[in-house]
Amino acid sequence: MSIIKHFLADPKLLLNAVGEGIYGFDLSGNAVFVNPAAERMTGWQSAELLGKKIHQYHHHSHADGSEYPADECKIYKTMFDGKTRQVQHEVFWRKDGSCFPVEYTSTPIYKDKQIIGAVAIFRDVSQQHNTENALREALNKVQVLTEQLKDENAYLLETLNENWQDSGLVGNSDIFQAMLAQLELVSKTDSTVLILGENGTGKELVARNLHRLSERSSQPFVKVNCAAFSPTLIESELFGHEKGAFTGANEKRKGRFELADKGTIFLDEIGELPLEAQSKLLRVLQEREFERVGGSKSIRVDIRIVAATNRDLRQMVEEGSFRMDLYYRLNVFPIRVPALRERIEDIPVLANNLIMQLNKKLGKQLKGISKKALYALQGYDWPGNIRELQNILEREAILSKGRLLDLSQSLNLSEQTRAEHGVLTLAQAEAEHITRVLDMCNWKISGTNGAAEKLGLPESTLRSKMKKLKISKDP
Ligand SMILES: Nc1ncnc2c1ncn2[C@@H]1O[C@H](COP(=O)(O)OP(=O)(O)OP(=O)(O)O)[C@@H](O)[C@H]1O
């Protein structure tokens, strides 16, 4: 007998060989056929099911355990209406009481145009479900990580765009050294620090060094310029927002406080923080806890807070534009960064340091600055502080053809000072005059045609004045 004949003689051979489970039903819903694949999947042997209402064995309940009445059974329905059904999201129950997700087709069986029963062909889709769930979980994780990366990336890009020069704090004057000593002491603690000082004095550099010297140095240092955001946006910038918290909040976003967890947050221009955000900040300072805008879940962070301002916060408290309780919370350890005019003796070393940075930035090989130019710099009162010095040196460095900056473009600085700020101090005028005379005398101090004689001073007095005013020939 050929193989085809075998199959035609006994169609069960085929049905027994397929991988899908097959149940055949008569019109009363009793099992008339159960193939081995169905036995394997359900654990019920065909002898246990044949002639029985099979719904009661493998289809009695839904996945959540609630009852699945027989008159709702989709396999039975096929026997009544003759419609073929493809069914998903249902379970079949095993003999051991467990269940598995199935997909099945129930098809009516006709004989002489009369329905005589139905056949259900089913597949165990647990594997497929597990894979789908794993995929869904992986996708969720990817989504969370993508959001996190987006937040961090936006922040990093902003930081990169600032073109921050990672310069050290330079200066030997007593006032500056005293500030450095304070900085070093407080860096070892977790205390909140309030950095005070005029624009361009180096407050941000102080904050960065505070973090660098602290035990949090391997964790993030996150800066927020409180003046750079509108009152409506600053809260979401600091604390983040939930999706849909306000028009335009299309995605959930982490705030700077969350990004700075375990590290340091630097709140620059804290005096510009709107009152509403001040209240929220106060709560973070008290409880280290906050909620995202539009959210209700409290988020805890472990953060060191450093704030800076050029404003007089105490006066702002008196005027009612800064919360008194917040002021006291921030003012735990104030550090005052001196203005450049308070430490003109640092100008030579600062200028040299800045020129070395400019060499790198501009690809130049400048050696320093001329003596005359240096005196001019020391006679100016620097309303823009180190940033102004930096700008002047950069402009000069770009224009300069020689190795030594002579500040030919900016030598009228002291005149500018006089014009913009009234008069030179006596010491500045004295230093300028002595330097001019020394230049005239080719730096000969004593004897005939020496500077002391021209100035009408004893040589020793001139020398002590030069020492006091830090006037010397070499740059
Ligand atoms: N002691 C220093 N030594 C060398 N460079 C310094 C020093 N202090 C400040 N600078 C440089 O001066 C510039 C201004 O410093 P910084 O931005 O820290 O000032 P700031 O007080 O935060 O200014 P603002 O109040 O305008 O934000 C920076 O480029 C910084 O590198």
Automatic annotation (TrEMBL):
Gene3D superfamilies assigned to the protein according to its UniProt record, in alphabetical order: 1.10.8.60, Homeodomain-like, P-loop containing nucleotide triphosphate hydrolases, PAS domain
GO BP term (any one): regulation of DNA-templated transcription
Keywords annotated in UniProt: ATP-binding, Coiled coil, DNA-binding, Nucleotide-binding, Transcription, Transcription regulation
Coiled-coil ranges (or none): 128-155
SUPFAM superfamilies, per the entry: Homeodomain-like, P-loop containing nucleoside triphosphate hydrolases, PYP-like sensor domain (PAS domain)
PAC domain location: 85-137
Molecular function via GO: ATP binding; sequence-specific DNA binding
Transmembrane annotation, as ranges: none
Start and end residues of each PAS domain: 14-59
Listed name of the protein: Fis family transcriptional regulator
Annotated source species: Pseudoalteromonas peptidolytica F12-50-A1
Taxon lineage: Bacteria, Pseudomonadati, Pseudomonadota, Gammaproteobacteria, Alteromonadales
